[in-house]
Amino acid sequence: MMSIKLPQLIATFVQAKNDQNSDAVIACFAGDAIVHDEGQEICGIAAIKKWIDASIEKYQDTLDPINLVEQGNETVLTAQVSGTFDGSPIPLDFHFTINDGKITMLSTRLTGD
Length: 113
Hints:
Layout: H1 8-18, H2 22-26, E1 29-37, E2 40-43, H3 45-59, E3 62-71, E4 74-82, E5 90-99, E6 102-110
Parallel strand pairs: 1-6
Antiparallel strand pairs: 1-2, 3-4, 4-5, 5-6
């Protein structure tokens, strides 16, 4: 695992994902957060919890952070994502928008898209 310095909230998110702890992942999000993943838009905590539970169950995915870039009001984490899916591991970009210490928007894309 690379040791890049992550903002506390993103470090907590990554740790919670790697621990497959959906409650801890959810705690990182604002109540009205929106997630864009695999072509879907997931709105609100209840829907995001369902998405995370499904993702953990389906992929058992873990994140290994490899880069972090601040772009305006967005923080982009590039991570090597490993799990039970074709092509594992793959690099994904996690585009975070953070307000008042919570994730308000998260979009995941293949690195380079």
